[in-house]
Write a structure and sequence with these properties.
117 residues, alpha+beta, five-stranded antiparallel beta sheet, 26% strand, elongated
Length: 117
């Protein structure tokens, strides 16, 4: 019986949000968001995906023209502003240290908010 309880506890810890795999995914999303927030982009286009997501196709506003796609879920607080953005609009992000409420912490959009110009 004790072995069975121990197995259940171990499985719970592995599948919980505090597991090492989950923490690694959250750390990766946070690091990607930090890199995204360091540049200025212009909006090349938008893609509406399944599950009510919006993917912004961005390019850096420098000579390198690095292309980046950032997907925002329908729960992101800036969703209304994102849907109203037009092509070639300048886009800047602010990085937050903690994930936004109601957004999956493993997604890079959980650590990004639009910087108002």
């Amino acid at each position: 019986m004790a072995v069975m309880v121990g197995c259940v506890v171990a499985l719970y810890r592995l599948s919980s949000k505090h597991s090492p795999a989950s923490q690694a995914a959250n750390d990766e999303g946070r690091a990607v968001a930090h890199r995204i927030a360091q540049s200025t982009y212009f909006l090349k286009g938008k893609k509406h995906g399944h599950l009510r997501t919006i993917t912004l196709v961005l390019e850096t506003a420098d000579l390198e023209r690095i292309r980046k796609e950032v997907t925002f879920s329908f729960r992101h607080p800036d969703r209304k502003h994102i849907t109203q953005m037009s092509r070639l609009e300048i886009v800047r992000f602010e990085h937050t240290a903690t994930p936004l409420r109601r957004v999956n912490p493993a997604d890079e959009c959980a650590y990004l908010t639009l910087k108002r110009m």
